[in-house]
C-alpha cells in the first residue's frame, strides 16, 4: 500500500490535523515507511506463539483472601459526614 499527497491530506483532515501543504510529501514518505514495516510484521508466522503480557515471564504475588476487619459499621461510619442507617449518604451528581 502506498499513500500519495492527496491520501495524506485526507487522513490529516479526518484526524483534524492542521498540515502544511509543503510537508505533505514528507509525511507521505514517513507514513509509507510505517506501513511497509507493518507489512513486514504481518509476514511473521505467529501461529504457535502464545500471547503474552510482557517479554519477561512474570507471576503475580497473591495473598490469602482473609477478612481481617469488618462487621462493625459504627466504627467504619463514625467519620461519615452523612449517613443513613449503615450506609454513606452522598449528594446526587447525575440526573
How would you sum up this structure, described in words?
Helix content is 36%, strand content 4%. By secondary structure, the protein is mainly alpha-helical. It has a domain at 5-42. Strands 1-2 form a two-stranded antiparallel sheet. Strand 1 and strand 2 form a beta hairpin. Helix 1 packs across helix 2 (24-42). The radius of gyration is 28 Å and the shape is elongated. 1% of the residues are buried. The model has no long low-confidence stretch (mean pLDDT 88).
Strand content: under 5%
Helix content: 25-40%
- Unreliable residue stretches: none
How do the strands line up in the largest sheet? 1-2
The overall average pLDDT, rounded, is 88
Order of helices and strands: HHHEE
Number of E-type strands: 2
Kindly, what is the distance between the CA atoms of the first and last residues, rounded to a whole number of angstroms?
49 Å
Largest sheet, in brief, is:
2 strands, antiparallel
Overall structural class, as computed from helix and strand content, comes to: mainly alpha
The Rg value, from CA coordinates, equals 28 Å
> Which term fits the overall shape?
elongated
Count of DSSP-assigned helices: 3
